[in-house]
Amino acid sequence: MGQVKHAMEQQQIRDELSSFVSDLLEGGYLEGAAAGIAKQVVDRGLESLSEKQRDVFEAQVIAKYGNQYCKKCNSKLELYEIYEAMTEDGLCGSCAHREAQDRKYDR
């Protein structure tokens, strides 16, 4: 059972990374070599990258966009939260939910 759970968790991480990178590509955040490498990550996975490609991906995608923090509570955003936070209000899911509830009750 432990191996199955681990495999499922790894697949979830791959799916979240692929979705995050797809969002960056579609949003026009990536250009040149970084965009080509990102497309490869989406199509064939992180494991398909050479060492040099991985270095570019780490520097121009993960380091630049993958380490984001909530503007309200300063918690590190999960991959699935980052793109929305970048394009919306900069908040983690919890803070965004609380603010939406506050607006709802302020009416």
Descriptive overview:
The chain is globular and about 50 Å long. By secondary structure, it is mainly alpha-helical. It has helices at residues 2-26, 32-44, 51-65, 79-87, 93-106. The chain contains five helices and no strands. Helix content is 71%, strand content 0%. It starts with a helix and ends with a helix.
What would the keywords be for this entry?
mainly alpha, 71% helix, 107 residues
**CA radius of gyration:** 16 Å
**What would the principal axes of the Cα set say about the shape?**
globular
Give the N-to-C terminal Cα separation: 49 Å
How much strand content do the residues show?
under 5%
The major pleated sheet works out as: none
**Mean of residue pLDDT values:** 90
Secondary-structure class:
mainly alpha
* SSE string: HHHHH
Which percent range fits the helix content? over 70%
Number of separate helices: 5
Query: What is the number of E strands?
Result: 0
Unreliable spans are none
